[in-house]
Amino acid sequence: MGDTWTYQAEVLKVIAATKQEPEWFLRFLVLDDTSKVILEFREYSNSFFFLKPLALLYMLTGNSYWWSGVYLSLFSFWGCWFLVLQLRQYYPAFGSSAIISFLFFPSVVFWTSGVLKDSVLMGSLCLSVGLLLQLYHARSAPSVALKVLLLLPCLYLFWRIKFFLAAVLVVLMGTFLLTKWATGQFPWVSSKTRQGILWASILLVGILVASFAHPAFTINFFVEHLVHNYRSLSQMTDPSNPVLSFPHLQPSLGSILWHAPSAILQILFRPFLWEPAPLFYKFMALENLFLQLLTATTVLYLLRRRQLPRLPSCLGVLLVFFFLSAVLVTLPTPNLGSLHRYRAPLLPFFLTVVLAWGPIPVWLDRVVGRRE
């Protein structure tokens, strides 16, 4: 929670400099001018960008930390609520699980509220996904144009807070929308198998094009960046607390793929309840124990039914987004406390499917039926 007080201290510096020279604030917003203030954050960092909307909120609320936190929490909630409405409209079978996952799951609510950039991340991510779902189901050109216009600022905000997650979402959903368009243009792509092959092919081409467009989008950059961050942060992580350890992680695609399953399992289920750790980690472990039981219950329920429920293609793409993002977030983050916070905006995409596929919706229907 130290980050929130750091933002408080830094934004007050910006406010003080603005009072002395009001016209400087515009240069700060537009040109990243820091000539009047000494900040801890570098100009290109997402934390520096977060200070801009935060400073505007402080000005609107009379430098109130708490009211600024309320407005940021409302933005996060608005994004979650908007996405839940889209999921309930287009995929009713996943509506109840989406409500629980996005609006009521403890760590999701806790870490995506208040004066943290995760509040902006959650709001912009959910708004972007909700608008992408609307764009996928749009029927007319004016409707498509309107959704695109609304989508662009949301994606920009998401990009500035977590550019690598935004890149994953844009590539996955962008190629998926292209696949839908191609399906309408070419009847021979009507089968689900051919659509899947076409999506994978467009995705591969998109990755190749992106790698030539900017060096930050190459596979080598991502791989080297992940391993460099992991090694750097490992040296600064307190070994007395539970940590993630990947001693054989190497800056190669093969090594990343080898460690990917472990990364996904650890972001979901660690720390474990039996690991020696401070009290705050024990609260995290209790929630993880619930996740373990929930996932195990769903797996056993599916094995008993011997039938895998239908997963809409859009939700399938969002599930892929969760798994890829989980790997990109987990591998460079040895600190489990930080990882628990970083997973909060991603977890609902996984949890929505696990809840919907398990026995809980059936139990809820029985309870409702008995009351009626």
Automatic annotation (TrEMBL):
Residues passing through the membrane, by range: 65-84, 91-113, 148-177, 197-223, 279-303, 315-334, 346-364
UniProt KW keywords: Membrane, Transmembrane, Transmembrane helix
Domain of life: Bacteria
Organism: Rufibacter glacialis
Record keyword 4Fe-4S present: no
Keyword Disulfide bond on entry: no
Protein name: Glycosyltransferase RgtA/B/C/D-like domain-containing protein
